[in-house]
Amino acid sequence: MQAHSGRMFQARTQNPALAATLICIASAFIAATTLFAKALGSDAFGPALHPLQISHGRYVFAFLGLVMVAGVMRPKFDAPHWGLHIVRTTFGWAGVTLMFASVAYIPLADATAISFLNPVFAMMLAIPLLGERVGPIRWGAAIIALVGAAILLRPTPASFQIAALLPLGAAVLLGFELIIIKKLSGKQNPLQVLLTNNMVGVIISSLAVIPFWIAPTLAQWGLLALIGIFMAVAQACFVNALARADASFVAPFSYGTLLFATLYDLIFYDIFPDAITCLGAGIIIAGAVLLALREAQLRRA
Fold first, then answer.
1. Long-range contacts of range 194-197, CB-CB < 8 Å, 24 or more positions apart?
2. pLDDT tens-digit profile of 211-259?
3. Is the pLDDT of residue 159 over 80?
4. How many Å apart are CA 9 and CA 5, to the nearest integer?
C-alpha cells in the first residue's frame, strides 16, 4: 500500500483478534442500516420513504462523513479510474436500493441471508467477465448456497413471497460490483476508493430520487444520517480488518450480520426466525464460507 495513502490505511501488523472484532462491529452497523431502512420504508416516523430516497440518504451522509475524515487525514490521492468507479457504484447503488426495498416486506434475517449470495454470483460472473476457471469445489459451494436460497424463497403457492426476489436481485447486482472491485483492488488507496464511490453514488442517487422525493420528518432525517454514517463506519472497519488479517480469516465473521439482523428483528419487530429461515440461512452461509476458503487457497497457490 502506498505510503501516502493516509495513516488510517497504512499496512498494519497482523492482529487477527482485532480484525475479527472490527468485522463484528462492521456487521452490527450494516445490520443496523437495514433496520433503519425498514423503519423508513414504513410509516413509523412519518410517510413511508421510497427505497430510492433511502439509498440517496445513505450515499449523501456517508460521503459527508468520509469528506470530514479526509479533511483531517489529508491523504494524497491519485487520478481515479472514473469508468470503473461509475460502473462499480451503479451496481452497488442498485443493489443497496433493492435491499432497502426488500426489508420493508420480509424479515431482516431472510433478506440478509439471501444477500449473502453475492460472492456466489461474483464467482459465476467472473467466468465470462474475467476469464476465470472454476473448479468442482467452487461449483459445489455455489450449488450449496443456491439450495439455501431456494429454501428461503419458500417456493410453494402458500408461502412464496414475491418480495423475496428483491434481495436475490440485490445479490446479483452486488456480485457485479465485486467483479469491479477486483479490478480496482490495489490500484488506489482505500480512502480514495470509498470517497470516489460515495461521491459517484451521490450523483446517481440524486438523479434517480427526483420523481420520488418527499420532505422527510426530523426523525427520518436522523435515520437517513445514521444509515450513511453507519455504512461509512462499517466500510472503514472492513478496510482496517483486511489490513490486519487475511480475507479468508475475516470473511466468516462478516456473516455475523445475519445474527445482528435476527436480533434486531426480534427486539424491534418481535419477529423470531422460523425453521425455514434457520435452515436456508445456515446452508447459504455454509456454501459461502466454503467458497471463501477455496478462493483463499487458490490465491495462496
1. 194/66, 194/232, 194/235, 194/236, 194/239, 195/63, 195/66, 195/67, 195/70, 195/77, 196/80, 196/85, 197/85, 197/88, 197/89, 197/92
2. 999 999 999 999 999 999 999 899 888 878 877 877 667 777 888 899 9
3. no
4. 6
Q: Which residues constitute the domain of residue 281?
A: 15-300
Would residue 1 count as lying in a domain? no
Instruction: Kindly state whether residue 199 falls inside one of the protein's structural domains.
Output: yes
Q: Which three cell numbers stand for residue 134?
A: 472454476
Q: Round to whole Å and give the CA distance between 50 and 101.
A: 8
Report the range out of 72-86, 234-248, 257-271 with the highest average pLDDT.
257-271
* Residue 4 belongs to some domain of the structure: no
The x, y and z cell numbers of residue 275, run together, are 425453521
- The pTM score is 0.86
- For residue 207, give the C-alpha cell: 438523479
The set of cell numbers assigned to 289 is 464460507
CA 109 to chain CA centroid, nearest Å: 14
Kindly state the cell numbers that stand for 15.
Answer: 492482529
| Structural domains in the chain (count) | 1
The SS3 of residue 143 is helix
Burial of 299 (0-12, 13-18, 19+ CB in 10 A): exposed
Assess if residue 25 is contained within a domain: yes
Q: Which of 22-31, 53-62, 132-141 has the lowest mean pLDDT?
A: 132-141
Separation of alpha carbons 194 and 201, rounded Å: 10
